Amino acid sequence: MNIHQTQQRPRKAVIPAAGFGTRLLPATKSQPKEMLLVGRKPVIQYVVEEIQATGINKILIVTNQKKRTLEDHFDSNLDHFSQTSEVDGDIEFFYTRQSHPKGLADAISKAETFVGNEPFVVCLGDSIIQSKPTSNILENLIETHMENQANVTVLFEEVAFESVVKYGIGTPKFEKGLAFSVVGLVEKPSVDKAPSNLAVAARYVFSPEIFDYIRQTKPGKNNEIQITDSIQLALKDQGRVFGLKLDHDEKRFDIGNYRAYFEAFFRFSLADPEFGSEFREYATKMLEI
Predict the structure, then answer these.
(1) How confident is the model at residue 88 (pLDDT cuts 50, 70, 90)?
(2) Which pTM does this prediction carry?
(3) Residue 248: count of CB within 10 angstroms of its CB
(4) Do 146 and 287 have their domain in common?
(5) What torsion do the CA atoms of 103, 70, 202, 90 make, to the nearest 10 degrees?
(6) 42: nearest Cα among 83, 13, 74, 89
(7) In Å, what is the CA distance from 59 to each residue of 10, 13, 56, 226?
(8) Are residues 100 and 192 in the same domain?
(9) 148 with 99, same domain?
(10) Which of 233, 222, 228, 217 is nearest to 194 (CA)?
(11) What is the pLDDT of residues 121-150, one digit of tens each?
């Protein structure tokens, strides 16, 4: 496998946002789950701001036919956008569609022309990463990718062992701080067959060769093409795959079900610079009732 391209710093990012959000009905009946508010901002704006903080200014959003509001939200010509958004006006947004839900790997494959022959970042549009105030976890992921001349670098989080059946799970080989070499990935293993409790956490850095492995990936569960299977093919071809683990005070919020959504809204409301302390007092009083 060719690794010279990974010595470049990624200049482009891809946000897969084509899922239908059925677990969040009826809230997602007329709006995408990525546009649900968490505190003052929709989910996808947190993702874009995270990307922006790394210096990347070209973003492709993979949507479906029911997600025109995503394009409208980032249209800088709309009234008051520049006054109310923290998104830099220099960011260029591009859009393409995944008309049929064929899995994450298929969604990422839609970015091949956009990416060209360069490394790139993938951030799922329905997951918010709460980093330390002094760091950006996506920046750390990019640095890990470049330092290790990796072909693929994946963000991981530790989950309860009984929850591994919900995630792609990694097999670590050795660790250096929060970074480690990955020697295997399995999609949603049973508890007794899980190689660890390290779950894929919605952020990736890829070299462009990943598109070749996506083309070789056979559909799996629900006839979907899983990116974990594509990464596993890269591993079999001697690809260099690394992981970076979220620290104990960093957290991913997967806005894919109501429990996670409620928790995210609560946590970000507590952190609101204007009303956070007042809301904390209110929440404390409510818990005493």
Answers:
(1) low
(2) 0.90
(3) 8
(4) no
(5) 130
(6) 74
(7) 11, 5, 8, 22
(8) yes
(9) yes
(10) 228
(11) 999 999 999 887 777 899 999 999 999 999
